[in-house]
Structures are given as structure tokens and as C-alpha cells.
Amino acid sequence: MTASTANIKSPFAVKQTFINIADSSELFPVRRIYCIGRNYAAHAREMGADPSREPPFFFQKPTDAIQNIKSGSVTDHPYPALTKNYHYEVELVVALKSGGKNIPVNKALDHVFGYALGLDMTRRDLQKASAEQKKPWEVGKAFDHSAPVGAIHLASKIGHFKEGSISLSINGEVRQNANLNQMIWSVAEQIAKLSEGNELFAGDIIFSGTPENVGPVVKGDVIVCKLDPLPDLSIKIV
Asked: Which end of the chain is more exposed for a tag (fewer CB within 10 A), N or C?
């Protein structure tokens, strides 16, 4: 903000997006949402890509796409407009407390505030149509409520995830089940790679990729996501 604009009052009340912090009354303010694409080899293959040749790539969602999910309860999640093929993608979410440019891999985890479970909900038919036309993915990825996220758990308390079973079930039937050690790019490597092209800051979050077996949901379906030691994340499509 320059001196000439510092005293200008905006007529708009723009809300800051926050994510709950576990065991705390404080909230985590979100600056940007980064998402890595095709970060598990089997998922890359099911999406028609060759993981052995593809460097990491990232896309973004708007911060107000976040839907805060309380642990211990099932939160209603609205089926979005325009799609007839609405997909789930369970992911580990990384929240940053600091950032920088060209962060070395061996220093990357020093910038992590905590971790949460999240869903990268996707209007798959719209995403595929955009990809076929060589257009951006936003219509399929960056829409209202497309980023359900559970409470952030402090890395200082739970440590850092190098492995661990991550799963998703629909109406009690397991659909996704993998281990975080199957990521092509680790959390530390994702932070380092992102910082090469964008200066990272406190408040940035990273959706770290989803395993294979993504698929559709319909109204009435209940999604339950699991990752020890985090509490389950559960939504009902309405």
C-alpha cells in the first residue's frame, strides 16, 4: 500500500478465510491454496499421465473455496452446479508458518506449521473438457466449497509425515487406500519446488496430492477420510 492509498477506505467488507487449529481457540489465516497434481504414480496413470516423465506441477484454488470441517461430526457439503461427474480426492494438507524463495529441501519442513486432512473436490467432467481444449482447470477445480479441510494439527505436537496410511470410504466402502510414502514428491520437495517459482509466505497451504481410485459421488453419499493420528474428516453430499 502506498502513501497515496493508505487512507482510502474500501466500501467492501472482504472476509479473511480461516482454518480451525486443533485444541485451540485461534484460527489459521489462509493466504494461498496450492495443489500439486498427479503426485502418486498410480493416480497419474489413471489420469492418463506418465509419472516417470512428468515434473511436478501445481494449480491453485481460491481461499474462499475452503469449507471448515469439524472433527467428530458429519458436515453437509453441497453438490455443485454444472457437473454430472463430481469426484472426491483425499489429501494431506500442509500449512506454512513462514516461507521464502528457493527454499532448500533440507530446510523446507522448518516452515511447516501443521497438517490437516483435506478433500480436493473436482468437477471431473468440466476439468476433462478444459484439458481437452487446452484451457485452464479452474472451472473443474476452483469453485465454492471445493476444498473441505479439517482442523490443523501442529507439527510441533504430531511431527512430520513421511509415511502413514491415508484412505477414503464412501458409505462404508473403502475407495482410496495408500501410504504417504508413495508420493512422487515429498512434502519437503513440494515446498522447495513451489518456492522456486513463487515466494511462499505464512498462511500458504498445500494440498499434497491424492492416491489412485478417485471417483464420483452423488447426493446422499457420506465420505469418510482417515489418516493417523489425525481425526477423521467426514462430509455428506447434499
From this structure: N
180 DSSP 8-state letter = G
User: What is the DSSP track for 35-67?
Assistant: EESS-BHHHHHHTT--TTTPPP-EEEE-GGGEE
Give the chain's count of helices (H) and strands (E).
6, 18
Q: How far apart are CA 141 and CA 57, in angstroms?
A: 14
Q: d(Cα 24, Cα 1) in Å, to the nearest integer? A: 32
Helix (H) or strand (E) holding 29: strand 27-29
Please tell me what DSSP assigns to residue 162: S
What φ, ψ does residue 124 adopt, rounded to 5°? -65, -40
Q: What is the pLDDT of residues 5-21, one digit of tens each?
A: 456 677 888 899 999 99
Residue 13 neighbours by CB under 8 Å, 6+ apart? none
Distance CA 129, CA 220 (A): 26
pTM of the model: 0.93
